[in-house]
Design the sequence.
């Protein structure tokens, strides 16, 4: 005798087993979802203030840099310094109202400076307000003795920087350095006093070394109240890209989208960003020496150091 089974009929044991599998699967989905949220969400460190997600910290920060001391044929023997324009704000409000804990990227700040130091240079550090220089400590290379030792060497200058408006000219300097970190996008672009000094550097052809989000500070040369044109119209440079800035919140690097776009802003002023991604690329266009990201910190310092020495020697500084 033939029997037929309806395609949707199942015996009781099989049905029970399937229900158990479904329940286990749901628990697995819930667990993986929570795990995903934990790894890919920005981490709240205090009320509405966030640092990058565990995933992005794992992928995009490092405990040691690639620093290797260079032997320069010529080193600087004079007394004039490199002037560092650093961010003095750490908390950046995003488009959604959440706050990103940023400031100056430690590797983008300290590693290029170490290479300049190796070529004989010393530094003055200045901020808009004179407040201490904040670092993105979540990006600090905690196992790098070279970074930590140099940090200690200049700690006094970092904690007690000069006020930009009190620097009347660049007569005591041989070069400019502007570190990266999203902090550079806050009050540096609107500082007329900074814009005035950058115009002076531009007119003198003084090496101006800038990395990652540091090009935001170049906008100060055309800020309201200065009544001057953008100093770098027609220049080509490396910069952190808007494309990457727009992508990183999806992985929790930032807790939301930025309120304005760096690359778009400087290109509207007439500069051209050459890179389309962040690979550690560097570029020189006249006095402007740029690098695209933390990956460029060492190459940028190595590239800039002999240019700074040559400028100082050629101008008897």
Sequence:
């Amino acid at each position: 005798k033939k029997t037929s089974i309806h395609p949707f009929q199942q015996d009781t044991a099989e049905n029970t087993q399937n229900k158990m599998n479904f329940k286990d699967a749901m628990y697995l989905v819930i667990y993986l979802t929570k795990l995903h949220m934990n790894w890919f969400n920005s981490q709240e460190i205090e009320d509405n203030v966030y640092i990058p997600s565990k995933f992005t910290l794992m992928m995009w920060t490092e405990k040691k840099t690639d620093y290797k001391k260079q032997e320069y044929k010529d080193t600087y023997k004079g007394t004039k310094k490199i002037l560092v324009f650093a961010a003095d704000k750490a908390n950046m409000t995003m488009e959604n109202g959440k706050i990103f804990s940023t400031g100056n990227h430690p590797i983008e700040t300290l590693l290029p400076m170490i290479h300049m130091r190796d070529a004989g240079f010393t530094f003055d550090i200045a901020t808009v307000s004179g407040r201490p220089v904040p670092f993105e400590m979540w990006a600090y290379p905690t196992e790098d003795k070279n970074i930590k030792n140099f940090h200690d060497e200049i700690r006094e200058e970092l904690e007690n920087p000069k006020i930009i408006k009190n620097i009347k000219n660049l007569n005591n300097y041989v070069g400019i350095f502007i570190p990266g970190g999203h902090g550079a996008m806050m009050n540096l672009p609107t500082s007329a006093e900074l814009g005035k000094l950058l115009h002076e550097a531009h007119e003198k052809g003084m090496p101006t070394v800038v990395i990652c989000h540091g090009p935001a500070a170049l906008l100060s040369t055309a800020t309201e109240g200065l009544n001057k044109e953008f100093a770098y119209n027609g220049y080509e440079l490396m910069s952190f890209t808007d494309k990457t800035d727009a992508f990183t919140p999806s992985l929790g690097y930032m807790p939301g989208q930025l309120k304005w776009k760096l690359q778009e802003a400087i290109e509207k002023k007439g500069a051209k960003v050459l890179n389309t991604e962040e690979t550690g690329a560097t570029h020189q266009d006249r006095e402007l020496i740029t690098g695209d990201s933390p990956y460029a910190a060492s190459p940028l310092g190595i590239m800039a150091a002999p240019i700074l020495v040559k400028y100082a020697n050629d101008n008897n500084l």
